[in-house]
Amino acid sequence: MGEFSTAESSLLERYFTNLDRPVFALRNLPEVVKGALFSRYSRTEKSLRRVLLDEFINEPDSGFDRLAGSPPVPGSPRSQGESSDFVGHFDDDMVAVRRAEEFYERVLVGYGDDSVAELAGAHVAVEQASTLAAKALEDSRIGISPLEKSTRYVRFDRPGPDGRYLYHRGPELAHPDYGRAADALFATYSSMVEPAIQAIRERFPQEEGETDRAWKAATRAKALDLLRGLLPAGTLTNLGLFGNGRAFEYLITKMAAHELPECQALATDLHRELSLVIPSFVRRALDDRYGRPSAIRLAQIRKRLRQLTPTPPSGEVKPSVRLITHDPDAETKVVAAALFPYSTQPLDEQKADAAAVLENLLADRSNRRQRAPRALEHAEYTFEIVANFAAYRDLHRHRMLTQDRQHLGTALGFDLPPGLADLGMADGFARAIDGAAETHTRLDREVGPALAQYIVPLAFHVRWYFRVNLREIYHLCELRTTPQGHPDYRWIAQEMFRRVADVHPRLARYARFVDLGPGDELERRKSERRIDEKLDVLDHRVR
Q1: How confident is the model at residue 36, as a pLDDT?
Q2: Largest CB tally within 10 Å, which of 79, 188, 425, 440?
Q3: Domain count, the chain
Q4: Is 229 within a domain?
Q5: What is the DSSP string of 10-28?
Q6: What is the pLDDT of residue 113?
């Protein structure tokens, strides 16, 4: 308040949500400037706004005007030099931009450490990537937030501009059987979409008071849910990623080490594009000192461990959820952690009546958005799950846990959605799946198990594990058992919760928003009606 002159305030208001309150947000600043700004901020007594003004905007060597497009403050050193021609600052002089980047790099080196890279982020769109590659991109648990095209809301029968079905066709998949099998799967999917939608609409007619939009959306989602198992893992998808610089740096390195050439190419693409917006934070991702040696090491570890674990193909396995490990002292640990912040005693000396502590800690939760407290993280469980790959894709989004999967294949069998039999489509679905399985066997033998994954339909089973704490169990199971969820992942979440309740009934009893019922027959109907209600409220506000 009163810290800035009128001219300074006029300039700074472009970059901050306010100039006179202690809490404010940044805006209209390039990511590299934000990172360097916070880096310098941690080593000075100045306010953040003053740091930006003195050490960036009015620093002649910073090139700030080239990156952020701002005029200098009248009377400042920058206003009297070559930077005074503000109109020229909006040109595409990349030499000046590179010089500015070097300035910010020096700031980061001088005043920051690796954690500074978490203060700068970027949005990236990745289009026309296979489902397999999308899973690799989304596997980062911390620092990356992904969003992918949905198989429930988007039809995948639309051909591309070249008239061909949308699946990955890299040179590594030039095997003639691959294209034929993928085309056959898409042809079956395409032939079934409209008949499935019409049959479901006949079975679930529009109800009184239900809008045409809601009814059509719910019935279309039901049909696409039934058919998604036909889509091969090579199906092209689009996804958006938001992440901080440190997370993107590691993601690029991991992708460069991946066994799939598609992922290796994506590492190069990501590095190139992110170098245009947060160059200082991804510089080491593929460099010769850090990035490439790390990628080589990851690839070597994969090769060495694979040689140590020869595993013959197993037979078909029914979907299952097994609790492999749990802590018998979990309740004691949760109670101690809950008491600890309010006590003066060491953690291992926290003693109280467990029932009373849990009742006071959890009994008054009135909805699932009232998150379970951190103390529940002291109870941990390891699950091994066998289910179809489509369900894995849904549950893979939960990143606050440790997880990994085996190669996608056909040896464990596949799921035939029960609703297809009612529509008279089960035989056609099964024939297409069996044809893809035969092709997978040949590809596995001739191009290897990694590349053979591309042809495996999402209906096939895959084995993976979750190591998860009780707090995440509350979140995952309460969210994924809601009646509008897909039956496949609802069953998994329900079984996970049942296993926890078996060994820790008192800890599980407060997850009262876990739905162990059968679910809705037309899963999206109630959700779409709620959307209509929200839209009506918004329409009234507009009026």
Answers
A1: 75
A2: 440
A3: 3
A4: yes
A5: HHHTTTBS-SSSS---B-S
A6: 60
- Token look-up 């690029």 returns 252
Contacts of 290 (CB under 8 A, 6+ apart): 284
- Separation CA 336–CA 342 (nearest Å): 11
Amino acid at 244: N
Residue 163: phi and psi, rounded to 5, are: 80, 5
Q: Which of 465, 405, 385, 394 is nearest to 228 (CA)?
A: 394
Q: Which two tokens stand for residue 310?
A: 């020869």
In whole angstroms, give the CA distance from residue 166 to residue 159: 6
Q: Does residue 488 sit in the same domain as residue 353?
A: yes
Q: Which helix (H) or strand (E) holds 321?
A: strand 320-326
Contact 57, 63 (CB under 8 A): no
Verify that 83 and 30 share a domain, yes or no: yes
CATH code for the domain of 488: 3.30.1360.170
pLDDT tens-digit profile of 483-518? 999 999 999 999 999 999 999 999 999 999 999 999
Give the burial string for 506-518 (b: 16+ CB within 10 Å, else e): ebbebbebbbeee
Residue 541 CB partners (closer than 8 Å, separation 6+): none
- For 118-195, strand residue ranges (E) read 121-130, 144-148
Q: Distance between CA atoms of 431 and 79, rounded to whole angstroms?
A: 74
Q: pLDDT band at residue 79, thresholds of 50, 70 and 90?
A: low
Same domain membership, residue 355 and residue 469: yes
Q: Which residues contact 178 (CB under 8 A, 6 or more apart)?
A: 439, 443, 454, 455
Q: Residue 17: give the domain boundaries.
A: 6-112
**Could you say which of 88, 112, 136 is where a domain stops?**
112
Is 313 among the domain residues?
A: no
The pTM assigned to this predicted structure is: 0.87
Q: What is the pLDDT of residues 440-456, one digit of tens each?
A: 999 999 999 999 999 99
- Paired with 122 in beta bridges are 243
Contact 46, 65 (CB under 8 A): no
Residue entry with tokens 């990851």: 298
Q: Which of 71, 88, 112 is the last residue of a domain?
A: 112
Which of 539 and 242 is assigned the larger pLDDT? 242
Pair 226, 293 in one domain: yes
Is residue 74 scored above 80 in pLDDT?
A: no
218 & 286 share domain: yes
Closest residue by Cα to residue 334 from 297, 276, 369, 375 = 375
Distance CA 21, CA 1 (A): 8
**Closest-CA residue to 41 (of 30, 27, 55, 28):** 55
Residue 439's nearest CA partner among 409, 397, 466 is 409
Cβ proximity of 222 and 152 under 8 Å: no
Amino acid at 268: T
CA dist 321 and 463 (Å) reads: 10
- Hey, is 118 helix, strand or coil? helix
- One-letter-per-residue 3-state SS of 380-394: EEEEEEEEEHHHHHH
447 found inside a domain:
no
